[in-house]
């Protein structure tokens, strides 16, 4: 994964892994504002030709790093990110239950968003 760049397209709600000018994987997310600010990953997708290269893990790691730099929480709804966080507690603090509840409510209220 050394030749892969990770970039945050906040406006589109996508954290993208780019290799040779091609998006090879991404995490779709939104920013929750209330009851507290949080990044909420919903889906992690890696193109089939790039699976098994650590791209999804690198995306999850960078999402938590961005949250840390911004001083916000991560409230993962994406099953992959939930599993990744459980395997990397030193990098992924547990999500607050109220934030998770609010994130699920936000997602339910915006059914066409993801």
Strand content: 25-35%
**Average pLDDT figure:** 95
* Main sheet attributes: strand count, strand direction, barrel closure: 5 strands, mixed
Low-confidence stretches: none
Helical content, roughly? Answer: 25-40%
Radius of gyration: 14 Å
Instruction: Estimate the global geometry from the Cα principal axes.
Output: globular
- Which class best fits the helix and strand makeup? alpha+beta
Distance separating the two termini: 27 Å
- By DSSP (H or I, 4+ residues per run), the number of helices equals 3
Order of helices and strands: EEEEHEHH
Give a count of the beta strands, DSSP E runs of length 2 or more: 5
- Which strand order does the major sheet show? 1-2-3-4-5
How would you describe what is shown here?
- This protein is α+β, with helices and mostly antiparallel strands.
- It is built from three helices and five strands.
- The radius of gyration is 14 Å and the shape is globular.
- The longest helix is centred in the middle third of the chain and has 16 residues, at 55-70.
Spell out the blueprint of helices and strands.
Blueprint: E1 5-9, E2 14-19, E3 22-32, E4 38-46, H1 55-70, E5 73-74, H2 79-87, H3 97-109
Parallel strand pairs: 4-5
Antiparallel strand pairs: 1-2, 2-3, 3-4
């Amino acid at each position: 994964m050394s030749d892969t760049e990770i970039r945050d397209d906040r406006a589109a709600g996508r954290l993208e892994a780019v290799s040779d000018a091609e998006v090879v994987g991404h995490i779709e997310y939104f920013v929750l504002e209330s009851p507290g600010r949080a990044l909420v990953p919903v889906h992690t997708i890696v193109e089939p030709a790039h699976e098994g290269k650590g791209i999804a893990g690198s995306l999850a790691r960078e999402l938590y790093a961005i949250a840390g730099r911004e001083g916000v929480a991560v409230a993962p709804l994406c099953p992959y990110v939930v599993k990744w966080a459980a395997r990397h507690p030193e990098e992924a603090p547990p999500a607050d239950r109220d934030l998770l509840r609010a994130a699920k409510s936000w997602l339910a209220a915006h059914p066409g968003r993801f």
